[in-house]
Each structure stands twice: as C-alpha cells, then as structure tokens.
Amino acid sequence: MIHLPTVGSTNDWLAARPELADGTWVRADIQTGGRGRRGRAWVSVLGNLFASVVTRPQAGEGPAPQLSFVAAVALARALDRWVAPERLTLKWPNDVLLDGVKVAGILLEGGTGATIIGFGVNLAGHPEGVERPATSLPAAGIAAPAAGDVAERLAVTFADARADWRDHGFAPVRAAWLGHAAGLGQRLEARLGVDTFSGVFTGLAPDGALLLTLADASVRAIHAGEVFAL
After folding, report:
1. Helix/strand/coil (H, E, C) string of 80-149?
2. What residue ranges define each of the domains in the chain, with the CATH number in brackets?
3. What is the pTM of this model?
4. Is pLDDT above 80 for 87?
5. How far is Cα 5 from Cα 148, in angstroms, rounded to an integer?
6. Distance between CA atoms of 55 and 132, rounded to whole angstroms?
7. What are phi and psi of 150, to 5 degrees?
8. Neighbours of 165 (CB within 10 A)
9. Greater pLDDT, 206 or 130
10. At 27, which helix (H) or strand (E)?
11. What angle do CA 24, 123, 79 make, to 5 degrees?
C-alpha cells in the first residue's frame, strides 16, 4: 500500500504510472481533486479514506464493469469490522449506504489495459450542503477507525472477492451484492439521460444490469444511469 500525504486524485496518480503492477494500491490523507461519478467533486475531509487500486485483466475474470460489484461487496465486508453489517446496504451501481444514507462511493475508470477503482469512505466526517445527502461513521454514532486500518482490510477483502469472481464467475458476487442490496423489492426511478423509468427493483441480470419491473409488468434492464428511491 503506497501512502501519500496529499494527492490530486488517487485514481489519477495510478493512471499516470502505467508501469505499476496489477493490484497496486495507493492511499492519500487528502485529495485536492477528488471526484465521483459523472465528474462530481468529492469533498476531502481529513480522516476519511481516499484509496485506489489498479487492476489488469487476469485469466478467468469477466467483463471489467463487473468489478464495480466486486468492489462494493469487498468494501461492505471491510467496513463490517467497525459497522454492524445490517446497517450497510449497497446502492446500484456503486454506492455504500449506512442506515440508508450514502457513506461511501466507488469510481471505476479505464486506462491503457487497466481498470482503476477508487474508494472514498466518510470515516471521520462528511460534507454538508451537497446535492445528495451524505453521512459518516461518527454521525451515525460509530467511532471512526484509522483510514490506514480500513485501507489494509479493504485490500484483503478486495483480493478475496476478486479471487472468488475469477475462480467462480459473477454468480457468487451477484448473490453477495443482492444480499446487501438497497431498495430491493421497492419502487425506484431510473434516470438515463433524458429518459426516466419508474418501477419495482426486482433484481440484477446475470450481467449486473438492474432489473426494473414497470407498471405494465414488462422488465427493463438498466445498464447505466442513476437510480433514486420513490
């Protein structure tokens, strides 16, 4: 685990170093240019976790987008050392919720022959006044662990989840993700650019698409977009 006091973005730091081996991790105390999905800024709070890992395709692994689910399962397993597992849920496609509010985000970005996965976890604090509500462990009454301890555990749980994916395919990862799924069986709204669909979240397709059962009983597979509870 490479540790940096300050960095613009841990994802960018790895992307600028194509010589680094598969499975290389970097963690920073502060990010000055962190970002979430769709280019949103990720606010840096000292004591939170900012870490990324570079992955290069290995024999037996499925399509790179499935790494989003591998990463989410791994992060939930890492956090359950400090947080009761029943308080953590996974929001499609790549957020972790604590008591139903976002506490962590995951960002996948492609590079030359690699997928870089960034993790941001609100261990010590969370930003106020952001577009989507957020929380942190202390805000939920949980003592904040050291970011380095969480990073080290995450590296282990990610390696384990990735090996399971590589050796047994996407099915066990999909099952583990669904075991933590936020909103399963409930009404959701999916926004896909200018199109919006609402229906009941009934599961994940074998490729990881969110399955939304619409009012006419048809099933829509959502491969990309944002979903919101109704």
Report:
1. CCCCCHHHEEEECCCEEEECCEEEEEEEEEEECCEEEEEEEECCCCCCCCCCCCECCCHHHCCCCCCHHH
2. 2-179 (3.30.930.10), 187-229 (2.30.30.100)
3. 0.92
4. yes
5. 12
6. 29
7. -65, -40
8. 25
9. 206
10. strand 25-31
11. 65
